[in-house]
Amino acid sequence: MYGRDLISIADLSPQDIQRVVDTALMMKNGRSSSALRGKTLALLFEKPSLRTRVSFDVAMQQLGGHAVYLSPGEVGLGEREPVADVARVLSRYVDGIATRTFQQETVEELARWADVPVINALSDGEHPCQALADLLTIHEKKGRWRGLVLSFVGDGNNVARSLMLGSALAGIDFRIASPPGYGISTALVDKAKSLAAASGAAVVCVESPQEAVRGADVVYTDVWTSMGQEKEQAERRRAFGGYQVNAELLALASPDAIVMHDLPAHRGEEIADEVIEGSRSVVFDQAENRLHAQKAVLSLILGGEGA
Ligand code: CP
Ligand code: NVA
Q1: The domain containing residue 66 runs over which residues?
Q2: Considering the chain, what is the average pLDDT of its residues?
């Protein structure tokens, strides 16, 4: 993975994903590394963040390097200065760029012009670093990927897309329940299905949350209104009315199912308070794993070192 970009999780092979998880576990288990001594990562963010920003910053410090955070509005990506210029200038100062953008095209354009690796730290299209951390969490909690059923309830958004592709690569059966008009595009579902065919997994899209969750090993949800969609909030609340992950829905899952959410959560909307605070919720272990998974990604991409 040395020197490569990470724009979509589908940029990775199943072997790459396994290596990220093995490296993350090694680092989580206390193996210290100074693989990135003297290296600098730019964090170029167009949207707010807690987990992603802090975990990338701490990851760089723990690997012997450091991060420079550029806040939304500070750089004026594509406004104060063309994306191509920002990419070329940053490439002269830093060893890698982790970027959080609105449009998927922005992160792609940055990657096209930058001479250093570009990592997608969430775009409207995908959230690959979240999905890698989630695969790590699922492996830790369930001891395997193959044969598991992951049910995503809600919006076919950036988190859902990366999770679908990541599950397909890892061999997890992925089911998604979304209201009409809020699912994942047929083209991307077809791409996931072809990846799943190679790993022996299945990808299924339905409307009914009950149908999706029945017998699931992992029940996953995310906000109904993502960053940048705030104007659609009222309309989305109506459309997603029956899509809350609550005790009643969870009762249909496997008795030892875990509940996941990438956070931040809107309690009382996509997830009931009793569920996110309940014994099956692993959301804080999941948030912690962002750090370990990103240390692995950074070490492999910027340092060429891993398990
Ligand atoms: N899950 C996640 O990416 O959180 P932040 O938006 O706080 O980074
Ligand atoms: N789908 C959410 C994820 C936040 C981490 C968003 O894009 O706002």
Answers
A1: 9-127+289-302
A2: 97
